[in-house]
Structure prediction request, 649 residues.
Amino acid sequence: MSRSASFLFTLVCFIFAGTNLAHAEFKVEISGVGITQIPIAVSEFRGQEASPQKISGIITADLERSGQFKSSPTGVLLDENSHPDFNTIKQNNIDAVLTGSITKLADGRFDIRYRLWDAVKTQDLGGQSFIAMAGDLRLVSHRIADQIYEKLTGDKGIFSTRITYVTKQNNRHMLWVADADGENAQAALTSPEPIISPCWAPNGNELAYVSFESRKPVVYVHDVGSGKRRVLANFKGSNSAPAWAPDGKTLAIALSRDGGTQIFILDAKGGEPRQITQSPSIDTEPVFSPDGSSIYFVSDRGGSPQIYRIPVSGGAAQRVTFSGTYNVSPALSLDGRWLSFVSRGANGYRVQLMDLSNDKVTSLTESSQDEKPSFAPNSKLIMYATKVSSREVLMTTTLDGKIGTRLAGQSANIREPHWGPFLKP
Amino acid sequence: MINGVCPVKKFIWSLLIVSLLAACASGVKLNDVPVEDKSGAKINNSQNKDADKASKSANSSSSSAGAGASSSSNAANNGNVGTATASNLPDAKQPTAAAPVNAPTAADAGMAGPANAAKVIYFDYDSYIVKPEFQAVIEAHAQFLKSSQRARVSLEGHTDERGSREYNLALGQKRADAVRQSLTLLGVSAAQIESVSFGEEKPAVAGSDEAAYAKNRRAEFFYK
Prediction:
């Protein structure tokens, strides 16, 4: 009797705490109209009000950003040992329930535990516990979101991956590495001169980028763990548009050392580049196909910038985009199914998606100044830069264009996003 | 007469020295932070040779890989050493802090070059053709470069802000290359010229209208 009374008391407390915290943490902006989404009830993690991070809020934001989940609070506080009241839950058409807790240990670290339930089959889908320092609680939350995502959709989650981007505030240019939700950003480089085109090496430890700090575009490779960097390409003329081969051993790059901008392949350690395109036109923005056999790039050889494909081993370039007079910034999904790019049309510059199996193109956004699409490593989301009320921001979109979210975490103008690979567990 | 000339000469010399000093100093004292390439420059000894090389070449804009890049003057004086901070994630390495590298600044500009000749050439939308009205400017620079064999010029191409940054970089390169070609046609040695591009990254004028765009579609002469 007294036990159930105290339970009721706890319940009321956490309903209130829950709404407040959810409001404070939740920064994902859903701009699309819902589709088929998995309804999941997420409980506050027991003890999280006293922890530095609101674990359930981070997980909820992750799952919603994927476009594949619709979350609601459980109303009652449930930890990993609780048995949810499935009768009530089923009435609310909930398919899954997430429960958990976070406890501070004597040594200052935290013990985070969770359990996932299938509400339809009233089945325990398993859980895990993590020991982490305060600074790693966001990462742990993203890991939990990854596990839930994988369990419920069958695809690998991307919430614990990292992104890179550039900010510009007044004349200060900064290169950042951040979590996939835009939070936990750490500066890798600060410069009074522009930085563009950062991209992740497949190992997830290095970035290649273009810096103008020596009054010309020079390509650097930067180890984000040690902070060491080296000049990859500083040939006469402009050096730009680096893109790693899938094996990480070489990079494609645009050089103008012989006049005109052409595509070359360069060993990741440096050395003499091998010329891939030979045209009197502009050839730039190379990206490797996921199998490494060909390079997609932008060329104005046909009179307007279009996307082409050329075998790395040599041979003729084939035109890939045909509609419109300005198609640039190609990005390929790792599963090899999709090509994303930016197209200029009557409504401005918008992110496009081409299904490479049938060449069908759809427009994914309703904005007008989109730039630089980049795929999540699970090929399910695209991140891109755009302008909202003349401020540069980063957005994500699902591949059907229905769920768009704006990334939080920076007050400056944000641009040049690139989504990093899966990290090794 | 002698008494009259000397003070003027002295004055000119001191002006020169002051302006040189100012040019050097401005790399540090500008409100902008210098380039901090967080590359753990203090990690010491043999392992760090590469990082040292990298920041040196960043400073001097000469490259370990690069053919024929020119060196920019004063940057190497300004290198400070930053501190390294590492935060440990279970498996995700975070960026670390290190040595700031300084970029050449606008104060370095115009160290030489023909007197009374414009240093900017403007282009039409989507065009790389050097318009006839700028022929006199090209000729003045060609004359100067031919008579000063030691002079080195960077031709810096620029575009307006619309479209892809990398594609704009290539467009700006086309403009710089067009000016280079005009100069070499007039007999200037290719070894004296480097054409580079800033794309849309360094607009001359802020704004998103045609008036601003027209001022940003340009190539600039930068003597070093």
In short: The mean pLDDT of chain B is 68. Chain B has two domains: 2-103, 120-223. The helical segments of chain B are 2-29, 49-60, 135-147, 165-185, 210-216. Residues 2-103 of chain B form one domain.
